[in-house]
Amino acid sequence: MTSLDKPTGDTEAEADDARAVTEAALFEAFGGVRGMIETVLPGLLFVTIYTINNDLHLSAIAALGVSLVLVVVRLAMKDTVKHAFSGVFGVAFGVVFAMMTDNAKNFYLPGMLYTLGLGLAYIVTTLAGVPLIGLILGPIFKENLSWRTRNPGRKKAYAKASWAWGLILLAKCAILFPLYWWADTEQLGWVLVTLKIPPFLLAVWLTWVFLAKAPAPIDVFAEMEAAEKAEQEKAERETAERRLADGEAADSQGGRHRKV
Hints:
Distance between the termini: 75 Å
Oligomer: single chain
Number of strands: 0
Structural class: mainly alpha
Radius of gyration: 28 Å
Strand content: under 5%
Number of helices: 11
Largest sheet: none
Order of helices and strands: HHHHHHHHHHH
Number of domains: 2
Helix content: over 70%
């Protein structure tokens, strides 16, 4: 191996590590395959049952029921329930809204409004200099908000990713809201279910691309632990020095007493 080979290998290894860390963080943040299933299944069940028999109450109860089952399964497996719980709340809002208005199409409206608000949040926070994806992923990467002032390359990557999320979600809304007014419940439901996964995967993939090329995150938790350890070691050294000084002073005083 030449002297030029080793740095190249180290660089490739570091890049592989960065990609692995990024993949793990994205998996944790967005729930992975299981999270996608929990997101799609209630809406898919609702539109399937409603397409078959046009029964709003049965469709709504089935969608809410499967959401609760997913939470129970998570709890039984002692797994994180944040994705399943968010699904339950989303389905519950849809069910309540559809029942109150007696309009099955309104089952989808709260989720559509949430998507619109989220898309705007990604754009607005990026324009404000605090891209939302950085606020979401920062704690997972153990960097918190250090990327804002100490890691400009990473802030730029978060900004690009947030732009991607915002524009993708707004493009999705541009398709769904006209359908809400013009299409029937079945058409809207099937289009919405179809658009659940592909835009999400595109946004996650773009986020991975941007962050895999960005500088490594600054582990502020490790920095705080190191600072606490250094402070503790300093205190221990000062204590030991004081004890040594006190011991030497005592020995000196004892020597004077013996001479007297």
